[in-house]
Amino acid sequence: MPDATHKIPFSGRIVMIGSGSIGQGVIPLLRQHIDMPADRVQVISANAGGREVMESHGVGFLEQTLTPGNYQDVLKPQLEAGDFLLNLSVDVSSVALVELAQAAGALYLDTCIEPWLGGYTDAKLSPSLRSNYALRETALKLKGHGKPTAVLTHGANPGLVSHFAKRALLNIAQDTGFAVERPKTREDWAALARDLGIKVIHVAERDTQVSDRPKEVGEFVNTWSVDGFIGEGCQPAEMGWGTHEKILPEDGAHHAFGSDAAIYLNRPGASVRVRTWTPLEGAFHGFLITHNESISLADFLTLKDSQGVATYRPTVHYAYHPCDAAVNSMHELAGKNWVAQERHRLIVDEVTSGIDELGVLLCGHAKNAYWYGSQLSIEEARDLAPHNNATSLQVTAPVLAGMIWAMENPDRGVVEPEEMDHERVLELAGPYLGPVVGAYGDWTPLEGRETLFPEDLDRDDPWQFKNVRVI
């Protein structure tokens, strides 16, 4: 079990929005590692789900849906300078909450930049404007100095995986005889990735957790938030777009604003599959689900010339194979033209076996491909923390770590995971992640191709996106 003898003192209050699987899973970690009375934690939830768990830990519970019209009236009386606003909700604007927290002098952390209800699927908006790219650009306008720390997008991914990527770069450098000191700036990290030859970074995840209760027709089953997964699965597929890429996909487009670090496809992310690899699963197909780290990590690792033109950037994207019940659920959702099933079920206590293998796959360097990440089993997750499965604990541990980092660095303003101290975050989250391993592999997306049918491949450069995408 992780050492809980040393707790981080916190004199403020914690106001947590949301009590789904992540909210319920993070509460025991907060109680174990942050030294404060339980009655100074207040949970606000849109429904009664999680009330029993919250009250068992002695924290306050308020059932209240937050809307553009009432969120200030509900939250302002709850927040004072030195408090912490922890946003684990869906359908509540992250930008609105950051503004409110900073006006109150409170710290802030979320796991995703959320819009208000309906923002992910608002057909009146172009695909570009309902993308994570657009949400991030809006949130980054809040950056400034001298304000309380507001940590954006710090769960497993986005969040933890950006810290994995930094450690992976240093490991590859060491293993290939590349002499380098620990990078100190954004440009140092980008130069290291360029000099190592990194062309592609996949957030490669395979969830093998299973339940003894099969998915039923008309039901969406998942190991973490159903609403969250449906929302991001219906957004456009997005990826950081590398400078090595030769051809923009036919259904791809650049955004007309912002950093230009990413592109989107005119398709829902849950309809796009990509090839990837993890050490235990081997090669598999994953969904190209949009995530903030696909954009923020690509942006962080961009080098530009004196004219502002990008000279180096890796392609970065998610490659996600959720639990098999979630795959079947998403297939059913797509067949209903993206109209969500009425019944939702999270499998936490009923998981009988399986692991969540979550990490980053860095490709194109001298040793080909290197995966670094967490291989957490359901048995280990249950031994480590109550109210968690393997997937949720990989989120709740970096939530805890990000909160502690914010408490230790309270005046940093709006920050993304790439701007944080990766070693400190991994030190805090690591005890809850099970085996954290690095593994090299000789896999490329050309492996086993054209055995049955001819394909349009670029054999000169295995790491072109056209080779990675499943057509």
Describe this structure in words.
The protein is of the alpha/beta class and 471 residues long. Helices cover 30% and strands 25% of the residues. It has helices at residues 21-33, 51-56, 71-75, 94-104, 132-140, 160-175, 186-196, 226-234, 292-300, 324-335, 378-384, 390-408, 422-429, 465-468, and strands at residues 8-9, 14-17, 34-35, 41-45, 60-63, 84-87, 107-110, 150-151, 200-207, 210-211, 219-222, 236-240, 252-254, 262-268, 273-278, 282-287, 303-304, 310-312, 315-321, 343-346, 351-353, 355-365, 368-377, 414-415, 436-441, 469-470. A 7-stranded parallel β-sheet has the order 5-4-2-6-7-8-24, with helices on both faces. A 5-stranded mixed β-sheet has the order 19-9-22-23-25. A 3-stranded antiparallel β-sheet has the order 12-14-13. β6 (84-87), α4 (94-104) and β7 form a beta-alpha-beta unit. The longest helix has 19 residues, at 390-408. It is globular and about 60 Å long. The model has no long low-confidence stretch (mean pLDDT 97).
